[in-house]
Amino acid sequence: MDSDKFYTCKSDRAFKEVFLKKNDSEPLQALLELILEIKIDYLEIKKTELLSGNVNIKDKRVDAVVYAGNKKIDIEINSQDKDYVKPRNTAYICNMYQSHTLVGELYDEKTDIVLVNLTWGLGSKESKKTKYMIMSEDGKQYVKNFIIYEINMDYFDKLWYSKNEEEIKKNMYLIMLNLDKKELEAMPKDKRDKIVDKYITNVTIVNDNPEFQKYMSEEEDKRKIQNSLISEAKNEGISQGISEEKNNVAKNLLSMNMPIEDISKATGLSLEEIKNISKNL
After folding, report:
1. What pLDDT was estimated at residue 219?
2. Does 23 reside within a domain?
3. pLDDT per residue over 139-160, tens digit each?
């Protein structure tokens, strides 16, 4: 285990450890105010139990939902912009929307169901923020309370190295998420405020925790094993249609909670075939 490795909040686990703290929601509140461009008077972080049983919903379901005013907010950290990310995250917000609707006694649109995607891999030339809603081809909204924000983190990573001091200061709460330990420690005082200082303290404490380092090391090992299984499967002729080998590889990857979209790409099996394999495990 590399105890000297520093995990930024580009890591989903690091982000949740740093920001989803019930006893200190101030950094998260500041971050969401920047992203949503609203003033939040009160914020609450609640553990959540979403609808289960759907094989397309990840094993690690939404850990917490953030309540702010009339909004229920899920934040997803996407370290890469892979093909499966958007369908997977759409499944999350649909699941949250359905859960909220079933709990209430009325069908209404008073509560905004919001997904915030902090995504790397979009390219720094793309828009820094995109807002998605359900609407017709001519722009007519179907419902007003189903909202997805895609935050282009590549834009903010690049902004840090620009000379636009005004924009850097304005967007520091997003920029700081992927700064390494040396960059955080060397950050000039004029770029820091109470929130930035608190973030630096919290992310350092998280990285100094041996249990966190152990968890991250095991997750990286798991990811390497998954990649090795995919490579091995391809080398043994998956693309030539060796069905038994496909099934065995799919079983191994399912046991490691790999998204079925990735398993489908690696094995050539359909999503339906993978679901059937999952049922028989």
Report:
1. 78
2. yes
3. 999 999 999 999 999 999 999 9
**Does 58 lie in the same domain as 17?**
yes
- For 35-44, write each residue's pLDDT tens digit: 999 999 999 9
Q: Are residues 265 and 180 in the same domain?
A: no
Phi-psi region of 193 (alpha: psi -120 to 50; beta: other; left: phi over 0): beta
pLDDT computed for residue 48 by the predictor: 62
| Listed residue (64, 71, 198, 207) closest to 144, CA to CA | 71
> What digits encode the pLDDT tens for the residues 13-25?
999 999 998 888 9
Same domain? 200 vs 242: no
Give the CB-side neighbour count of residue 151, counting CA atoms within 13 A: 25
Contact 18, 198 (CB under 8 A): no
For residues 116 and 246, membership in a common domain is answered with: no
The continuous run of DSSP H or E covering 148 comes out as strand 146-152
* 111 exposure class (CB count in 10 Å sphere: 0-12, 13-18, 19+): middle
Could you say which of 168, 184, 208 is where a domain stops? 208
pLDDT at 114: 97
7 assigned to some structural domain: no
Which range marks the domain in which residue 22 is found?
12-208
Number of domains in the chain: 2
- pTM score: 0.77
What tokens were used for 250? 């799919």
